[in-house]
Amino acid sequence: EVQLLESGGGLVQPGGSLRLSCAASGFTFSSYAMNWVRQAPGKGLEWVSVISESGGVTAYADSVKGRFAISRDNSKNTLYLQISSLSAGDTAIYYCAKVRLRGDRACDIWGQGTMVTVYS
Amino acid sequence: DIQMTQSPSSVSASVGDRVTITCRASQGISSSLAWYQQKSGKAPKLLIYAASSLQSGVPSRFSGSGSGTDFTLTISSLQPEDFATYYCQQANSFPLTFGGGTKVEIK
What is the pLDDT of residues A52-83, one digit of tens each? Predict the structure, then answer.
């Protein structure tokens, strides 16, 4: 079964950091670009970051550029998102999502999400 | 950045109704558009990619159309399991952007 499982979310104070993980199974992880998408409580979806199949190319939303870092370990079938300098506006469910095909930007598989709460 | 505008933001409909949701891009995106369904407390689910291609396993009552800047998601006969929020997403360029969502509610 194709599956993505996020972990690493939690409660963090403003200015703090967390590392989110996304474990992939059921498909050839190294063949697909991967995204992080977040959703603030009661709000819509916001794309956060993307990483290419090999990890050599990354891109970020302006709202997180310079504070978040996406990476992947293809030997461990795992995607990461290091999030730092957090503020209340970063409170959200963070989803990892697999692109449907190489070169496509629609996401066909999503994890269940991990909640990040920034509180003071 | 490409802005995606969805309408309506909510719609009340009955089982069996035909429901149409529209999405407009702030600039042309060819057919690079996806539609997702999200149920409360769940992750989004891909319904349509490339504006009109049905994702595997998605019922045929869902259909998508459009190109350029104007797109439509149609549910031909609303079923109880279709009550959810629907999002469009442009897949033309980064940053990827989503519409604000359309909540389909029970009338």
Answer: 999 999 999 999 999 999 999 999 999 999 99
- Number of residues that this document lists for chain A: 120
**Distance, CA of A50 to CA of A87 (rounded, Å):** 21
Half-sphere exposure of A3 (CA within 13 A, CB side): 5
Query: Is B87 in contact with A44 (Cβ distance < 8 A)?
Result: yes
List the single best residue of A22, A93, A107 to mutate versus B (max B Cβ within 10 A). Answer: A107
pLDDT band per the 50, 70, 90 thresholds, residue A6: very high
Terminal CA-to-CA distance of chain A, rounded, Å? 40
Q: Nearest residue on chain B to A65, judged by CA atoms?
A: B95
Nearest-Cα distance to chain A for B16, in Å, is: 27
